[in-house]
Write a structure and sequence with these properties.
single chain; about 350 residues; alpha+beta; Endonuclease III, domain 1; Nucleoside Triphosphate Pyrophosphohydrolase
Length: about 350
């Protein structure tokens, strides 16, 4: 998989002109590279551009991150989803401070020994953070190479394997950082999964898919999509004067450590996540919910139905018993709910009910 030097120069120039302003590139360090790459793994680019500055302002160094509590990190991570990433950041920061004097080792084997740092992140630190001849291969890069070399029928995993076994020679002739980031930019902005702006592509003259008039969206072979389950959740606003009842998610549950409104599944046995709402209690749902909204976790799509109930009724109807293994607390949410470690959907609900 060889690209011409002219094409690579054009690609890097295009990337530099359009994306050098991103906050983690302006004030680049191994720490900023680490935080941004972990954020970008499962969250959209634009979301990161908006959220990254606040996180860095709160934790400007690996030492400040390592000394924070898990709750503080989770609150700062709010809105980015996949909260295990935030917990892994904290574990890794503490390990690096304890075993490497607060500095990232620029050695692949040592990086892989750090809890929470896997193969992709380790290679990103070396390639993008350290500008060393390594390749951080994400879905964008897999797709770009599959299309440039017209690998119709190939899966992204096949391309990943080839790039891993035989890294591009450009890593030795150009800045690995610039090469890696420009390919990521291209796959995100021009050669995306659902569209391809071939006329704008700086690599079009080297692209076999373009020169053969092949539909770029047919390459690479689409991976089978996981079916998203649609589930109805019943969430209760349990009132006590000006406070609302919340319970803390435990280890092994989604959003462990965060606080949510008491929540039940209406028609789906997610017993490890939420208790099943008993059909004997359906009389509590005769009135329409005061609010309905959608949310997502992993491969589940939720229709959240919000009902209001008094504390006494919540106890009398046995609903409180379902949360006996959890910490529960009545909290005042009128001051600054963002300062509490509430789940994102809970914050969304609280914001919405102010207008109801």
């Amino acid at each position: 998989m060889i690209l011409s030097k002219t094409a690579i120069n054009q690609l890097i120039l295009w990337s530099s002109l359009n994306f050098s302003h991103t906050p983690w590139r302006v004030n680049r360090s191994l720490y900023s590279t680490w935080i941004s790459e972990v954020m970008l793994q499962q969250t959209t680019y634009q979301t990161i551009v908006n959220r990254y500055p606040n996180f860095i302002a709160r934790f400007p160094s690996i030492e400040s991150l390592a000394s924070a509590s898990e709750e503080e990190v989770l609150i700062a991570w709010k809105g980015l989803g996949y909260y295990r990433r935030a917990k892994n950041l904290l574990l890794a920061a503490r390990f690096i401070c304890e075993h490497h004097e607060g500095k990232f080792p620029l050695n692949l084997e040592q990086l892989l020994q750090i809890p929470g740092i896997g193969s992709y992140t380790a290679n990103a630190l070396l390639s993008i953070g350290g500008d060393l001849p390594f390749m951080a291969i994400d879905a964008n890069i897999e797709r770009v190479f599959a299309r440039i070399f017209a690998r119709k029928g190939a899966k992204k995993s096949d391309i990943h394997r080839e790039l891993t076994l035989s890294p591009p020679a450009a890593l030795l002739s150009f800045s690995p950082r610039a090469f890696n980031e420009s390919l990521m930019d291209l796959g995100r902005e021009v050669c995306a999964a659902r569209w391809a702006k071939c006329s704008e592509c700086p690599l079009k003259l080297d692209c076999l898919t373009y020169s053969s008039n092949t539909d770029p969206l047919s390459i690479p072979l689409a991976e089978a999509k996981k079916i998203q389950q649609k589930i109805v959740l019943i969430r209760f606003l349990v009132h006590e004067e000006l406070k609302l009842l919340f319970y803390q998610k435990t280890q092994g549950e989604w959003l462990a450590g965060q606080w949510e409104l008491p929540t039940f599944t209406l028609d789906h046995p997610l017993t490890k996540q939420y208790p099943l709402f008993s059909s004997e209690q359906n009389h509590l749902l005769i009135s329409p919910p005061i609010l309905s909204l959608k949310s997502n976790i992993t491969h589940h799509e939720f229709q959240n139905r919000i009902y209001s109930i008094s504390r006494q009724d919540f106890i009398n109807h046995g609903l409180h018993d379902h949360f006996s293994q959890h910490a529960t607390q009545f909290l005042t949410t009128t001051a600054n709910p963002l300062a509490l470690n509430l789940s994102s959907v809970t914050l969304k609900i609280l914001k919405a009910i102010k207008g109801v």
